[in-house]
Amino acid sequence: MPIDADLKETTRKAAWLLTQHPWRIWFWADSLGLEGLLDASHITGDPQYAAYVHGLLKAWIPRMRYRGEFDYTAAGVALLRAYENTRDESLLDAARKHAAYLTGFRKLQNGAYLRYEDVTLELPPALPLEHPEYAQWIEAARRVSEGGPCVCVADIHLNGPFFAKLFAVTGEDRFRQLALDNLLPVIELLFDERTHLFHHFWQEETETPNGVAWGRGNGLALLGMLYTLSHLPEEETACQRIRDVLRRQSEALASLQDASGDWHTVIDDPDSYLETSIAAFVVEGWSFAVRRGWLAEDYRPKIEKAYNAMLSHVEPDGKLSGVSYETFPSMRREHYRKMPRNAVVPWGQGPLITAIRSHRQLSKHDGA
């Protein structure tokens, strides 16, 4: 394991790459990147990364009334963490407004909020012009199809933790209930009781999930459940259901970890490639869960294997190599198998940093 000085340097480099990212404000994994930058300040002791997040969020506040296509993916947890760091009341006010916005979406019969109303299946990733696969993915864009309204696994990470943290910050019980209302119905739609893994999405038109256990999506679900639980009362009845799903998903993930320490981009498909961001999600989540006593101590060897695999993929400039580009919904496993890799993106750099912090916190918990 690298010494602390090396970890700090890796974090600095990884965070610098994040500050160069062309943020879309908002897109699916912007939240992961901003949370990573906040953790970078904790790891390095350098406040510039947290200040960067504060400035970005402050610049967004005047634009909140002009809603964009993916504004429901705004970095709500980062917004509240920045408020805790600065006590800037405008950030808390923005969090309340974002909560009101999120509660305005229509709900399915089972209570799940439906925010992705017009899914296009198999949209191509936003590759740079110089990428060798750019032309073939532009051609593939001609074959996209409409998927209609969908519930996606990313909702678990985006909404449950935000409302739960808003409950913790304000003490207002309505936010505790909203955390559960945003989490439990999505788990019901996407958690596969047979495989104990999460599907990528569920279609309203067919009332079925897509049948693909996308790796990064399972990482999002893992973290979403954990960070919702972390802000809710332990005695909350519904939390037992979440902890049960967490335990069963973790058992499935542990059984499917590759000898290298990584996971396949389709978790239960050994013919799909090993994708490097998944290990970062799992290291962060399992380290936190073991520390809180929600997973057993015997997960530690699996954590170490994943942690070492993750660090082995970090390039000298701080880039986590081997991360797949944005992966839009598909009904076909082949779509996920062919997704290009080696992106420098918030869903790679951010989890790398948060995993380093979570792993170090587990070590400190042991007195190391």
Explain how this protein is built.
With 368 residues, this protein is α+β, with helices and mostly antiparallel strands. The protein is 54% helix and 6% strand. The chain is built from 15 helices and 6 strands. It has helices at residues 4-19, 30-44, 48-60, 76-86, 89-102, 134-140, 154-158, 160-170, 173-190, 215-229, 237-255, 277-292, 300-312, 333-337, 346-365; strands at residues 116-121, 145-152, 201-203, 208-209, 263-264, 274-275. It has a 4-stranded antiparallel beta sheet with strand order 1-2-3-4. The longest helix is centred in the last third of the chain and has 20 residues, at 346-365. The mean pLDDT is 95.
Radius of gyration equals: 19 Å
Number of helices in the DSSP assignment:
15
The end-to-end distance, rounded to whole angstroms, is 12 Å
Q: Write out the strand line-up for the largest beta sheet, numbering strands in chain order.
A: 1-2-3-4
Strand content range: 5-15%
The low-confidence parts are none
How much helicity do the residues have?
40-55%
Summed over residues and divided by their number, the pLDDT gives a mean of: 95
Give the total of beta strands. Answer: 6
Helix/strand/pairing category: alpha+beta
Topology as H/E string? Answer: HHHHHEHEHHHEEHHEEHHHH
